[in-house]
Amino acid sequence: MYSSSSVSKRLILIYVLAIQLLLINSELSLNTTNDYLNHTCLVSQGKYKTGSEYEKLIKHIMKMFYINSIRGYDLFGDSTFTAVLQCRGDSYGTKCRDCFVTALAALRRRCPWYKGRIIWYDQCLLSMDSKYSVGQIDYDNNFCMSNAKKVVEDRSEYIKVWNILVDDLTELAITGDNSTLYSVGEKRYKGDMVYGMVQCAKDLSRKACQECLWYNSFHFQDCVNYFRGARVVGRSCTFRFEFYPFIAKQCRGDSYGPKCRDCFVTALAALRRRCPWYKGKIIWYDQCLLSMDSKYSVGQIDYDNNFCMSNAKKVVEDGVTFIQVWNILIGDLTKLATTGDNYTLYSVGEKRYKGDMIYGMVQCAVDLSRKACQECVLYNRFHFQVCVNDMRGARVVGRSCTFRLEFYPFIAKQVRNI
């Protein structure tokens, strides 16, 4: 029995398809794979010797990359060595770190002692170069992979559609406040939807990013035209399009696998119906949220799109103690969600109140920093205290963070007693 207030918005072409789904067990059915794609040993740059200063530098930089890989990107460049780690725009945290570890081990095995080498996986690339190459477009180390199936009807229309999609995504990736040089989106082709992504290495300027994508879309047109899906991958930029969605989503911490996928499908269909053609739109379900925005908003707290839903029944005795208990519970869960190795920014727990047990959950969008997560939850606790205080159950829901408390267990596995 809930009373509520709400918010919504929409888009087809978006920065970082902020499919910030209400929370986090990243059982991301769309990007769980991390397939090996390709590698190249830059033979012309020669090899280094065991114990050399070059080897010591590589080891030092790779340790730094391991620490920073949770950000999704790292870069080092001087006159003798350039290294780049670039994870896919929807791969960060432990996913990026795992890809980096896999890529580094594979590079050592496939290109032992080579000064220059590059390896590509589905979710990251790792590049090393014996000269300074920061900000320079690499025109040589690019390749194309296409689907075996071809489009069988109206091919000229299809080529037009994917060209428009890649051009639009390129424009989105290099304009406004989009410092990630990354964008994803979709465009309709007859009865199907074509999904696309573009991304440039973050050391490139916006102009260089645009030039790189234009060059590759022209250079590899024979590999891309007519095929039901293709990707052009390089050291400096990449683009991809498919007839299925391949960018990650996130669901509530206890929602994963088919449950998360079903919620995403339901949310996407409902958004198209409720907010047709709107560039910005958000929809919330119990198990997920789906958000799309026409501007770059990754890592930023959304203070506007939040609402509260409370139980119709109130706590009838000792309301002051109850308020104290739920505030301690949410405070403790916020701390749990933002400390240690918890990159999910998600926690659940319970706390005793008289003869009852209060169950709670806190979760933030995974693009937030830990500090921003804490700030978001604290802001919503204060802003919606009238809605939450004295109520036998409430949830405060937003684009950036949510918390919930009930007098019954509502998480699939309620595990922690605070």
Automatic annotation (TrEMBL):
Gene3D superfamilies tied to this protein: Gnk2 domain, C-X8-C-X2-C motif
Gnk2-homologous domain location: 36-133, 139-246, 303-410
A single GO cellular-component term on record: extracellular region
Subcellular localization: Secreted
UniProtKB keywords: Repeat, Secreted, Signal
InterPro entries the UniProt entry points to: CRR_secretory_protein, GNK2, GNK2_sf
ATP-binding recorded as keyword: no
Annotated signal peptide: 1-29
Family note: Belongs to the cysteine-rich repeat secretory protein family.
Protein name: Gnk2-homologous domain-containing protein
Biological source species: Brassica cretica
